[in-house]
Amino acid sequence: MTDHVTIFDTTLRDGEQAPGASMTVDEKVRIARQLATLGVDVIEAGFPVSSPAQTDAVERIVAEVDGPVTCALARTIDADLEAAGEALDGGTDTRVHTFIATSDVHIKAKFDKLGDTMAEKQRAIIERAVEAIEHALTYTDNVEFSAEDAGRTDTGFLREIVQEAAKAGATTLNIPDTTGYCTPSEYTDLLTTVRDSLPEPEKITLSTHCHDDLGLATANTLAGVKAGARQVECTINGIGERAGNAALEEIAMALSVRDDDFKASTGINAKHLTRTSQMVSAASGFPVQPNKAIVGSNAFSHEAGIHQHGVLKERSTYEIMSAEDVGQDTEQIKLGRHSGRHGLFNRLEALGYDVPEDEQSEIYQRFLDLADRKKEIFDEDLENMMDEVRKDNLPSQSGDALPSAASGDEAVVAYKLEHLSVQIETDQDPQVTLRLRRLDSSIREEEATGDGPVEAVYRAIDHAVDQPHTLAEYSIRSISEGADAQGEVEVRIRYGENHFSGRARNTDVIRASAEAYVNALNHLAAAQADAESIEFVQNGIMNAYNGD
Ligand code: KIV
Ligand code: ZN
């Protein structure tokens, strides 16, 4: 008999807290649909009080994504709990996740007003946790409580607060190693201690939430499962605050490949892991390293002759699972000029696009135009095409202003590249001319030169946007094969302490470079427009407590 382990995916909340990983609401909804297909049990969709965009994401995921429980995060503050409750309103399967810090170091830094002595503060923290759980229970009977920085919390206090949280009605108790400090044996002991302190442990789901600061997040999570945790909190590709969170794909495959050891299973359909990883990488702008376990492009490649020989003879010599198991080999369905509407819209649906009927003719026509230029159309080409459709459908030639940047959604497009021309002559610096439409509907035309064409393009864009920032990272890679291969450009820009990323693909790599840069600037503009969000991002989750 194997036990079920609940997969709690927090890619859209903790994952998105990774510097520069901000995703639009549309991207989040698409990822949430994919997570449902993947078979996760709970989706932590956002932290509604932190910004209107986060609220939108939770509301839309509750309304549009079937299957998993939708969860919203809240501190133990009434305003947070109300925001979470309202965002989840109308959903049939929802959870409120409330948390408060419990370690001495956090208590000293954050809770000046809660008492004079540590004991007084701890008493007040328990009271707040209990009140928050009772408040959350007015919205849903599915309430999770987290003792933030449990990994460094005094064990006696941790036992006390989880007992009170269970008594107040929380049915999931999460023990975060917020700073990625614990070792696997310590984490096992911690969970065992917590479990043993509960009067009715069978009524409670114990949960892990491990960060990867020492590269131990997956190991600690699995140690937690061994100690009886029956929920694991994790993110696709392990994205998240600082070094990230435990990676969902690693945990799911460890539990599956080594079920002889863990005797626990999940509802994950592993064949969707690679696709999900690619989607999250595209939306977050964080590439997946080739040697990343499970989903990296080299995870199933064998280079050394001796390995190749062994694998050809008997795969199990060097492989403990196969590329097919995790969807790495899935023969991509290639579309082409002879593909019909049915084939196209089926593929788009599988990629997470919900194309309304009245837009289908336009999109099919776009597809045919693309197929005229490119013999074989891959998923990446379709995603690129859909990005183009979205951008082109924004008002421009008519002179309308671009949609408000305050909506917190796809519509947040502060800048749109309308024209780009690059002249390259031997013995001369490249010369760029471009036209950019701005949110206030003004048009800027700029010219610039540079050492290379990309530098010239970026200089011209910088003049056109008047937005202070620095270029932190630029990378380019080929993502398909042949003479018509597409180049994918990733850009990260920095503004103050925050990073914003942009990505674009095109067979013309200069154009892809320009678009990736403009996308990153649009992410920055969206965060600026969303004043609460930028304040939240700037101050970080720690400072959000000050003045509580
Ligand atoms: O790392 C952490 O402690 C968190 C909590 C909000 C659960 O993300
Ligand atoms: Zn976390």
Discrete helix count = 18
Main structural class:
alpha/beta
> Which CATH-level-2 architecture of the largest domain?
Alpha-Beta Barrel
Mean pLDDT: 87
Biggest sheet statistics: 8 strands, parallel, barrel
Instruction: Quickly count the domains.
Output: 3
Placed side by side, the strands forming the largest sheet appear as 2-3-4-5-6-7-8-9
- The number of strands is 16
Give the overall silhouette. Answer: globular
Please name the fourth-level CATH homologous superfamily of the largest domain.
Answer: Aldolase class I
Strand content: 15-25%
Radius of gyration: 25 Å
- Indicate the low-confidence ranges by residue numbers: 395-411, 536-548
Description:
- With 548 residues, the protein is of the alpha/beta class.
- The protein folds into 3 domains: 3-284, Aldolase class I (TIM Barrel, Alpha-Beta Barrel), CATH 3.20.20.70; 305-392, no CATH class; 415-534, Double Stranded RNA Binding Domain, CATH 3.30.160.
- It is built from 18 helices and 16 strands.
- The strands form 4 sheets. The chain has an 8-stranded parallel beta barrel with strand order 2-3-4-5-6-7-8-9, surrounded by 8 helices. The chain has a 3-stranded antiparallel beta sheet with strand order 11-12-13.
Q: What would a concise description of this structure say?
A:
With 548 residues, the protein is α/β, with parallel strands linked by helices.
Give me some keywords for this one:
single chain, 548 residues, alpha/beta, TIM Barrel, Double Stranded RNA Binding Domain, eight-stranded parallel β-barrel, three-stranded antiparallel sheet, 16 strands, 41% helix, 18% strand, binds zinc ion
